[in-house]
Please model this.
Amino acid sequence: MPEFQHSPGMRDILPPDSGRWRQFQAVFAQVVEAAGYGEVMPPLMEDLGVFQRVGEATDVVTKEMYDFTDRGGRHVSLRPECTASVCRIFAQHRPITPWKVFYAGPNFRYEKPQRGRFRQFDQVGIEVLGADDPYLDVEVIALAWEFYQRLGLRQVKLLLNSLGELDDRTRYEASLAEYFNDNLERLSPESRITLTKNPLRVLDSKRAGDAAVLADAPRIASFYGADAAANFEAVQQGLTDLGIPFTIDTALVRGLDYYRRTTFEFQGGTLDSAQNALGGGGRYDGLVESLGGPATHGIGFALGLDRTLLACDDEGVFGAPNKTVDVFVVDTTGGQEALRITAQLRAAGISADRAFENRSMKSQMKGADRSGAPLAIIVGSNELEAGYVVIRPLRGEDVQRSVARDTLISEVIKALQTAPKEATQ
Ligand code: HAM
Model:
């Protein structure tokens, strides 16, 4: 065992898995760029205060932050998510609205590592700042839906709720607190603690003992004012229009405190219930203001890459891309000719790999096979002297041919057009 391993909750992503990650981000970028979103790249680290605005009552802020004092005495933290950073960026740069952006990258939360839960985890997401329109909420949800479809996922479920306007939410919280306090003896000890911090979050409890008291708890729907009710109705109508199925879940409160009105979560059909949230988001109209910017409407979502890929594994879709080079060069004359040939091929846009250390023909051919390339180019001393190279198809029935060295590129292009490739997923 080597002295060092990666820290708990962190992972090393090796090829070919890393190709799958890149592909995941590329498909996401295609989907959202086609809807007018531009990429924003927030820093990995911010002043701690930026993330504290996410809500002092959330575990993410109180227990899971990777914060430290830097050498200049600033109290900073690795980002636990991107929404607060995007709002800080908006408050600082004041771009033209509506500002439609997407992001992709790692976040850090000091959580208990388990399947689908890591301390460094990747998300892709979008945020729209400066527009308040239920059809925007629908667009945002529809883009996540479209992305899941593009990955090939068919068992994802959309859960939808509205937390009402801030006033509605505040009245609801008060009523919930009263109800739970009246039923304190029926609540689990963990939920009693949650109650003192945030009564809404008690609705999140998955503990069997809490089920009965949760079942009779007041529902948010009876607290909606006319505006919130009409807004929620329009969002549902829009989703129905687009043929996106959803289930209303009035207990969906989400883990971060900044949400108002529309909230949603995507659940995988196959993961354990504690980790089955593939992604989620909602409206958060007060966040930019709390970061020193103008009052600005905001909505967005983030989708967890890790859990979404686990869901892909479970559904047998979106496997690792089969990345192979076009040509593998075998040179038994010392390696210099392989150096020239690979450079020439790559300059012509043909991907090429080669063997090093002037190994035997047999060992180099093994490397050629392992590379998955459909073609090998072989140079021995006879070919080198006579000004020829051998092109050998590595799969299928075709036989090898000698071609003049100075026609190499055109011959390789021709051979690649007919050479059978390994099955790609
Ligand atoms: P979140 O629900 O905290 O929301 O995270 C979104 C997704 O990130 C989760 O559904 C999950 O797939 C993934 N995720 C979160 N924590 C972990 C972890 N420890 N390990 C693996 N995956 C994880 C947000 O982050 C909000 N910023 C979403 C948003 C954007 N709301 C509005 N705009």
